[in-house]
Amino acid sequence: MNSSKSGQARPSAFSRRRFGQALLAVGGTAVLAKSASVAAQTGAAPWPNRPIRLIVNFPVGGSPDAIARAVATPLSQALGQSVVVENRGGAGGMIGAEAVAKAANDGYTILLSSGSAMAIVPLITPRMPYDPQKDLVAVAAGARLELFLVVRSDAPYKTYAEFVRYAKANPGRLTYGSPGNGTSPHIAGEMLKSQANFFSVHIPYRGSAAVLTDLLGGQIDYTFDPGISFSQLRAGRLRLLAVGSAKRNALFPDTPTLAELGLAGFDTGTTHGFWAPAGTPAPIIERLNREINQTMTLAPVIEVIRALGAEPTPISPAQFAAVIRGDSERFGKIIRERKIVGD
Fold first, then answer.
1. 27, 85, 135, 176: most buried by Cβ count inside 10 Å?
2. What are the backbone angles phi and psi of residue 270, rounded to the nearest 5°?
3. 223 and 178 Cβ atoms separated by less than 8 Å
4. Under DSSP, is residue 4 helix (H, G, I), strand (E, B) or coil?
5. What does the pLDDT average to over 11-17?
6. For the segment 146-156, what is each residue's pLDDT rounded down to a tens digit?
7. 237 CB contacts (<8 Å, ≥6 apart)?
């Protein structure tokens, strides 16, 4: 993301490098010692001793990609090895997640996944190419993402109430886009249709950036944006009708939530985060969690995350896994109600 908040000084590359080196020397000492002990027992070289692949399971331009690229540089500095971002989008995040699930569990391949790919996609896909419960292990949370109901600024509806009246008066005429079948914007769209009692057509894409392009171009009418449309909102090309979270967003304090507008309990928040192949040694998971959590306190990373309308969420692997389970249970209700299935 290129968005930044005024009044916040961006640390120089030199200062961030020095910070990362200091963090590695001081904060990582205990875990390094533990990793070295494990390596000595197994005969393996200390981890990490070569570049690490960070696979993002959505294309360039979306919120998972933005978070991955914000974290990669300071994480590289902290670990003393390059962290190379690799985008493998498609199938609601399954393509990238499968690549990590089937990778060697040596700590050199990790996943940055949207929350929906972990909490929702397994619920709508009868035959998963991997078992997310058995083949992947939670490492660290990245950020809690909220969704924003946006339309073009030239749409005939200027408010949420007008939008719903138009949708009800024109059943099936409106279309909404999502980054893919089973993503949180898709499920949010179904939640909206169910609770507001209207019908529109879902158009799945391969990522959020493609959705935004077609919304601006008039190919679709609305979307639940995961935070990449803000520059277009500021430029007046798009209009924000409502926030899909449990509380108002700090970037848009005057925009009501859908719950405030009458959709009781409407909450579409998910947590993007990091995963590793099952069986990755515990000392490596601990080290990654420690270092990733530390990056979440750095001003440049916070700036990128908040530019998405999100918040950093540094927690333990066990806490992160529990968050995903809770989201899965919440989204499972609408999935069963609407009989949503994968492709």
1. 176
2. -140, 165
3. yes
4. coil
5. 43
6. 999 999 999 99
7. 152, 153, 216
What is the arithmetic mean of pLDDT over 204-219?
A: 95
Q: What is the C-alpha to C-alpha distance for residues 15 and 225, in angstroms, rounded to an integer?
A: 34
Percent share of the chain, pLDDT over 70? 87
Q: Is the preceding peptide bond at 48 cis, omega within 30 degrees of 0?
A: yes
Task: Compute the C-alpha angle 324/149/274, nearest 5°.
Answer: 25
Residue recorded with tokens 């005057």: 254
Could you tell me the two tokens for 241?
């009708």
Q: Are 298 and 74 in contact (CB under 8 A)?
A: yes
| Tokens 């430029």, located at residue | 235
Nearest to 178 by CA among 239, 132, 221: 221
The three-class DSSP label of residue 240 is strand
Give the residue from 62, 334, 14 showing the smallest Cα distance to 213.
62
Give the domains, in start order, of the chain with CATH numbers.
13-144+271-329 (3.40.190.150), 148-243 (3.40.190.10)
Amino acid of residue 190: E
Is pTM beyond 0.90 here?
Answer: no
Do the beta carbons of residue 139 and residue 288 sit within 8 Å?
yes
Average pLDDT over the chain, rounded to an integer: 89
